[in-house]
Design a protein that fits this description.
The protein is of the alpha/beta class. The protein is built from 16 helices and 13 strands. The strands form 2 sheets. Strands 3-2-1-4-5-6-7 form a 7-stranded parallel sheet, with helices on both faces. A 6-stranded parallel sheet has the order 10-9-8-11-12-13, with helices on both faces. Helix 2 runs parallel beside helix 3.
């Protein structure tokens, strides 16, 4: 072992695949301990340790502050050689903990929070942006989720080095029992001829889900939509489905544990990827779901952000909901026309191209990049960082 890695994330690790992958990969060379919010579901992993923080019912506005202080105290008590902080929440607390314990500091920027020219930042967003601005120049390593984000961060923050790119590619998983979801899917066995679309991710209307839901008003009976995930907009989405009288054709499955998701996706025909054309984080999106759908044999219908358009079009693994410059986002009738193109023949064609895409985009390759870079970091001089 090369030492101890302390890995904080202000999230429940159960549902955070990027944290799980990083922790499991580094556990091959380091003694890894993840510090996360307690989901109450008893998550454990045989390769790394987990320390959880119980979120109190009260004081919701200061949960982040309390978690940060809890982690800093833990880091002082359990000094590591590396602190690997996930997402912008943990950027400054992770750096401060590294400073106090004289550890090397790695910052994994799950999101791209630098503003674009037309974006007005709220107070909370601005605080985290300013904290990230301070941290990225002082980190021993900065990690980004795709090349587009890495290049933007290097230019915007005037970094000496381009952040290390570790893409959101999950490992190909064994299929676990679906448990309670088996009975849900059994209700739809009489629709075996249906073309079943699935969206998995954040239940957010800002992501453009509304147009996909309303598209079903223009589609024939053989199309079905399943929504997997949780989020603050879930009740509004459920109400929209009821209001539009689509409850017999659109099913909300709620939040699904990551160990069950691969097996569940096998039961569908087409995956949906939807992001808005607002904010650099959305325009240069880096979704897990592109790879998760592919591994489950699902072609996709995706909105036209540059990273999505490149992969979907280059490998011919689905359709793009094009947005013409200066025009409003796709309306539901346009989305319905696109979905109609997903007939058995086109689905079969797109599926035939998925093998090449999967072979060229594997977690094993990303893991090798991460392990090599962390090994080099272990032997680098103390004090090297990304700043000028």
């Amino acid at each position: 072992m090369n030492g101890k890695v302390l890995m904080p994330v202000f999230n429940e690790i159960d549902y955070d695949g990027r944290v799980q992958r990083a922790a499991e990969a580094l556990s091959q060379s380091y003694q890894v301990t993840v510090y996360s919010v307690n989901s109450g579901k008893g998550y454990v992993h045989p390769e790394y340790s987990l320390e959880t923080w119980d979120r109190p019912i009260r004081w919701k506005k200061i949960h982040f502050l309390v978690f940060s202080l809890w982690f800093i105290r833990q880091s002082i008590q359990n000094r590591g050689s590396l602190i690997y902080a996930h997402d912008y929440f943990m950027a400054f607390p992770g750096w401060l903990a590294a400073k106090l314990t004289r550890s090397k500091f790695i910052y994994d920027a799950h999101e791209l929070i630098i503003p674009d020219g037309n974006e007005k930042m709220g107070r909370r967003q601005k605080i985290f942006y300013l904290l990230e601005s301070w941290v990225v120049r002082r980190a021993s390593r900065v990690v980004a989720a795709n090349k587009e984000r890495a290049d933007l961060m290097k230019e915007y923050y005037s970094l000496k080095q381009t952040p290390l790119v570790i893409r959101n590619i999950p490992p190909i998983s064994d299929y676990e029992s679906l448990g309670e979801y088996t009975s849900v899917l059994d209700r739809y066995k009489h629709h075996e001829s249906a073309i079943k679309l699935v969206y998995q991710g954040d239940m957010s209307l800002e992501r453009g889900l509304k147009k996909f839901i309303l598209a079903f008003k223009y589609l024939p009976e053989e199309f079905r939509l399943f929504l997997i995930g949780g989020g603050t907009d879930a009740p509004r989405i459920e109400e929209l489905i009821r209001k539009e009288k689509l409850t017999d054709r659109i099913v909300m499955l709620g939040k699904v544990p990551r160990n069950i998701l691969p097996g569940l996706l096998l039961h569908f025909d087409v995956g949906i990827i939807s992001y808005p054309y607002k904010g650099l984080n959305n325009i240069y999106c880096a979704p897990n779901k592109l790879y998760e759908y592919a591994q489950a044999g699902l072609p996709v219908i995706a909105t036209g952000q540059p990273p999505l358009k490149y992969y979907v079009s280059s490998y011919e693994i689905g359709l793009i909901a094009e947005k013409e410059e200066g025009q409003p986002d796709n309306d539901p009738s346009q989305i319905a026309s696109l979905i109609r193109e997903m007939n058995p023949e086109s689905i079969a064609f797109f599926k035939s191209n998925l093998g090449a895409f999967i072979r060229e985009h594997t977690w094993e390759n990303e893991k090798a990049v991460l392990l090599t870079d962390m090994s080099e970091l272990s032997y680098a001089r103390t004090g090297e960082n990304y700043g000028n």
